[in-house]
Write a structure and sequence with these properties.
Two copies of one chain form a homodimer. In chain A, the strands form two sheets. The first copy, chain A, has a six-stranded mixed β-sheet, with helices on both faces. The radius of gyration of chain A is 19 Å and the shape is globular. Chain A starts with 7 loop residues before the first strand and ends with a helix. Chain A has eleven helices and twelve strands. In chain A, α5 packs across α9. By secondary structure, the first copy, chain A, is α/β, with parallel strands linked by helices. At the A-B interface, β1, α1, β2 and α2 of A face β1, α1, β2 and α2 of B.
Chain lengths: ~280, ~280
């Protein structure tokens, strides 16, 4: 990759910044498919987010911005337009400049999750899902599940308010029975998703009682680090399908690329994501 | 070069942007000396310059900005501090964040010119110099010559006001006899510098009468494109030393690197600039 004055520029904005993977992943993709563009990490504090995002997009050679923690919710009020998924989930993770100059946002975390389910042949249309957590990742996942025809989403979160609000937003926008789960008992669900931070730290309890999972139920643990987590290991010990979070990231890549108009690179990754998997999987 | 979330970020800001060489040159240097940093082109319009420069420096992972046309004079009012050379020349071409958070600017065009003279063994201390042009390049060169002990600088420019103002600023700040040249006659000067655009376009007249150069005089033509220019060719036909502008660019590289605290890379380039010369020289 040689960066010249003609190279198109993308940023990933986050705080902290060190852990972002978008530069490595997308610069590798750009290099593989001959896209003269580069993704650059930009450490932006919450209080500077609005002004910095606008300043970056005033540069005509900047084509897009990836958003990471903590900026995804704030982007909703800076973008001029966004998708229904982003609006209901209350977050944006990608912004582009539309032909009319407006800033358009979308959210691909949840769609990446759906594609990761497809990849693992885990069903969700017409199914009952228990979702552990009601934060940003959970919201993106719940909204994407609802948009893709999941029949019921029960949301369990120790902070009951957040689960209730998320359930109400989804039930309002989609035909899905989205509501608070009064316990984390996984019995009776087709798919149980851990979208909480439980499992990030050593010694965290397993988020629910794996022994109570139905035979034939599937588990998805969105965590990337410390995989396979105790949850994934316990579910697999019961011979259940249990997927770690990596594939969510892999499956998001072509969605971002299409959003930014890089269709050829997107098609390439859809056809063969092995180079990305080699970078992500431990 | 692999860009990760920990990579330090530099920008080159210009309008237009396509012609900037800093990304190629400095990313090559970073790669050669193991500096985990990247230089990115940023196309910024004049009216957005102040706000964008400030926004970029609010990102803690941004360490520096290179400035090119048309932003060098405007940077003087955005920077909190600058060198005497930058102040007298009225332009800044590099900005860094000081430990106290202030933005510090400096101008290396003129010092790069001085080092290019050193490289070509062309003397300037105590000498008489005729400078053709009174624009940004001419100002940077004149100020650096004055700072480095040139005895007399005569400035010739069709727009007489600019030459007079530049001469007055230099005479005020340094012990050099800097003044307007009433003609472009090179007779009597030790060194004649073309810092005007004459020679950029095919069919441009030669900026002064080469036949009138003293025996033993030297010529420096700051132009990079279309080298050797008719001026350089005519002076060489008289067996005079005549240098094209490339080396000014090469010799600036270690100055920028030291300004940004990248001393090891600077020492490497000072020791052996052959990789940079291969990129620049036609």
């Amino acid at each position: 990759m040689t960066i010249t004055g003609s190279t198109r520029v993308y940023f990933v904005i986050a705080d902290p910044i060190e852990q972002v993977r978008a530069p490595e992943l997308f610069n590798q993709v750009f290099s593989m498919y001959g896209v003269d563009a580069v993704v650059i990490p930009m450490n932006v504090k919450a209080e500077d987010f609005d002004s910095t995002l606008k300043a970056l997009f005033r540069a005509p050679n900047v084509d897009g911005v990836f958003l990471s923690i903590p900026h995804k919710p704030a982007a909703l009020s800076v973008a001029d337009r966004c998708s229904k998924l982003a609006k209901v989930a209350g977050a944006i993770n990608a912004v582009r400049r539309a032909p009319d100059g407006a800033l358009e946002g979308d959210l691909f975390d949840g769609l990446g999750f759906i594609k990761a389910l497809d990849n693992a042949r885990i069903g969700y249309a017409g199914k009952r899902v228990l979702l552990i957590g009601a934060g940003g990742a959970a919201a993106a996942i719940a909204v994407a599940l609802a948009a893709c025809g999941t029949a019921e989403i029960a949301i369990f979160d120790p902070a009951g308010d957040k689960a209730a609000q998320l359930g109400a937003r989804i039930a309002d926008a989609f035909r899905t029975d989205a509501h608070v789960a009064t316990s984390n008992d996984p019995a009776g669900y087709d798919l149980v998703v851990n979208a909480s931070p439980l499992g990030m730290k050593q010694g965290d309890p397993i988020p629910f009682d794996v022994a109570r999972l139905d035979a034939g139920a599937a588990v998805f643990d969105v965590l990337m680090k410390n995989q396979p987590t105790p949850l994934v290991r316990a579910a697999r010990a019961r011979a259940l399908i249990a997927e770690p979070g990596f594939e969510m990231l892999i499956q998001q890549a072509p969605l971002y690329l299409r959003f930014f108009g890089l269709d050829e690179a997107a098609a390439g990754i859809e056809n063969d994501a092995s180079a990305l998997r080699e970078m992500i999987y431990p």
